[in-house]
Amino acid sequence: MFLQRLKLFFILLTIISASLLIYFWYDNYKFKTSDLDESTKRKIYEKTVYLQKLAYSKFAISKNIPIKVSDKMPSNLFGAATLSQDGKIVVFLNKKRFKESIDYMIEDVLPHEYAHALMFVLGDLSKENGGHSKKWQSICKALEGKRCDRFVNYHDVIFDKTNLF
Questions:
Q1: Which of 2, 37, 117, 125 has the fewest CB atoms inside 10 Å of its own CB, making it the most exposed?
Q2: Is the dihedral of CA 5, 9, 14, 19 positive or negative?
Q3: pLDDT digits (tens, 9 = 90+) for 21-31
Q4: 16: domain range?
């Protein structure tokens, strides 16, 4: 009797585990092959508009800087601000990182990269501290960036993911 129950338990455990494995695989596949959901896109848009207003009110900059979400960026990057040879400035956000924490990407990474973009607009192409000079930090703080550090603090990302309230 005990062996039959044990066998049934392991069969049920195997079925549940296989079901969860298939669900997580499908969820990951769906994320990789589709756009961000509309709610996330709306949050990015609203934050971008807010950052544009702050840039105008604090620095008199009214340049429209496009924000693009890319799944082509290396996984170790959260975002990047780019300045092309013809003067176009674009902020890229790593789509893969949105799976970890949408709020961190919007509230921390977006202002961080937008501050870099404003440095380009101001003509400051300083490489000081990897582009994270005191001037950049003051711009980032003026844009209400939560953490205007040089690099991502992975503890913040993990804490944000586990924060239930």
A1: 2
A2: positive
A3: 999 898 888 87
A4: 1-34
